[in-house]
Design goal:
The chain is an alpha/beta fold. It has one domain: TIM Barrel (Alpha-Beta Barrel), CATH 3.20.20. 27% of the residues lie in helices and 23% in strands. α1 links the parallel β1 and β2. The protein is globular. The mean pLDDT is 95.
């Protein structure tokens, strides 16, 4: 089972920072998940939330203004993909696109780095994933926060693109039957939201491709 560090190792460092990414690498993870938004000056920045603490939207701020507000440097997607990682052809950069505004810039950087980095693009915006899969040759996956009805065949809500190979499930709504049905259609399966040691062990028993976790020390990477 692959272990991806959720926003880097942010037990000791601010999430989605280069320090958090480097700390995750020290745990020997198989990949890092991060979040992409677009600043007001067109920079693809790595931030999860769409609002600042004072209620402003991230897309209304320049990169410099974000840095000042947060009190630390917010990495760009370029800076993350330039990090030295072990075995770059296998190490997974799971890029979650948080907003459609970030699609074209992200595609440009996938074209720049895709031949020397393994990239998995995911989003809750499924049309975003479909568009990325149409434009570039890259692994893609759908983020899902529900337990859908699955009749045995590949559901219509999963685009037919050969690049869309992965489903990323919310742990709370995932069960072995769902994972098995997805696997039967040749799909990879990850979960996010795994928290306790017991949940990490239960995830391992489900035959998942991997987990996206805040606590990689609770799961031994393979």
């Amino acid at each position: 089972m692959l272990v991806l560090s959720h926003r880097g190792y942010h037990v000791e460092h601010p999430e989605n920072t280069l320090a958090a990414f480097r700390a995750a690498l020290e745990w020997g993870v198989d990949g890092i998940e991060t979040d992409i938004r677009l600043s007001a000056d067109g920079v693809p920045v790595l931030l999860h939330d769409h609002l600042t603490a004072d209620g402003r939207t991230i897309d209304a701020l320049t990169h410099a203004e974000m840095n000042q507000l947060r009190g630390h440097r917010i990495p760009t997607l370029t800076e993350a993909l330039e990090l030295a990682v072990p075995n770059p052809a296998r190490f997974i950069w799971n890029l979650e696109i948080k907003t459609p505004a970030a699609v074209e810039t992200t595609i440009d950087l996938i074209r720049r780095f895709g031949d020397r980095r393994r990239i998995l693009v995911t989003s809750f915006w499924h049309p975003v994933v479909a568009e990325v899969s149409r434009q570039v040759d890259v692994e893609c996956g759908l983020l899902i926060c529900a337990r859908p009805i699955w009749t045995g065949q590949r559901p219509d809500w999963i685009p037919s693109s050969p690049h869309i190979t992965t489903l990323v499930w919310n742990w709370e709504f995932t069960d072995s039957e769902l994972v098995a049905a997805s696997q039967a259609q040749g799909l990879q399966n990850f979960v996010y939201g795994v928290t306790t040691r017991a949940e990490h062990e239960a995830a391992r028993q489900m035959g998942l491709t991997g987990i996206i976790t805040d606590r990689p020390e609770f799961a031994s990477p393979t």
